[in-house]
Amino acid sequence: MILYDFPGAPNPRRVLIFAAEKGIDLQRVTVDLGKREQRSDAMLAKNPSGKIPVLELDDGRCIGESVAICRYLEHLVPEPNLFGAPGFEAAEVEMHHRHIELELFSQVGTAWVNGPIVASMGLIEPIEAARARAHDLVLAYYRRLDKALATRPYMAGKRFTIADITALCCIDFAAKLVNLKPAAELTSLWQWHARVSERPSVVAYPA
Ligand SMILES: N[C@@H](CCC(=O)N[C@@H](CS)C(=O)NCC(=O)O)C(=O)O
């Protein structure tokens, strides 16, 4: 199977870490985001949304969207379970994961798209008010996570799941490229960060 990715991009990193947790080997093909290769006819045929990651199966079928890809990998190699055991745990993982995607990752994306790096590429006219508002919402979300992680070791409860992978990839990207590093006083958040960063899957695919 081929994974279309780009070094440093947070969404392909989610899939790489997920696959490493499962012991699944993926062949990697770089799609140069700087050259807009994700919008080429060839890549749009694989994923009409013009984004990476894309997983191409051996028979040529393609899957876009990190979570859809991870669900497919979970089906191929069920253990270790990363989406939660069927029933309450799966619902709880899904809830926390959706909160992280919809309330944190989306705001990091807004701050990124309206920030100086994307502006320097001349692709879109940045909206400073949108960047500033997203920036504040991300910092507020970090404080919420810090409180939650004072009561449990992982994002969705007692064990490592896809919610941790998404949160880690998002926060590392935000800290490195969006000027959104969590404050030092958020000690529970940083302890969680250290806990998940020492996993072999994460060491293998650093930010
Ligand atoms: N919801 C999508 C987001 C994919 C996404 O935004 N990928 C970024 C790279 S991390 C991308 O392809 N950006 C290029 C673009 O939007 O043109 C997923 O989870 O896969």
Helix content: 55-70%
Q: How many independent structural domains? A: 2
The general outline is: globular
Largest sheet: 4 strands, mixed
In the CATH hierarchy, the third-tier topology of the largest domain is known as Glutathione S-transferase Yfyf (Class Pi), Chain A, domain 2
* CATH class label of the largest domain: Mainly Alpha
Each distinct ligand: glutathione
Q: Helices and strands, in N-to-C order? A: EHEHEEHHHHHHH
List the helices and strands and how they pair.
Elements: E1 2-5, H1 10-22, E2 27-30, H2 41-46, E3 54-56, E4 62-64, H3 66-76, H4 88-113, H5 116-120, H6 128-149, H7 162-177, H8 187-197, H9 200-204
Parallel strand pairs: 1-2
Antiparallel strand pairs: 1-3, 3-4
Helix pairs in contact: 1-3, 1-7, 4-6, 4-7, 6-8
Bound molecules: glutathione.
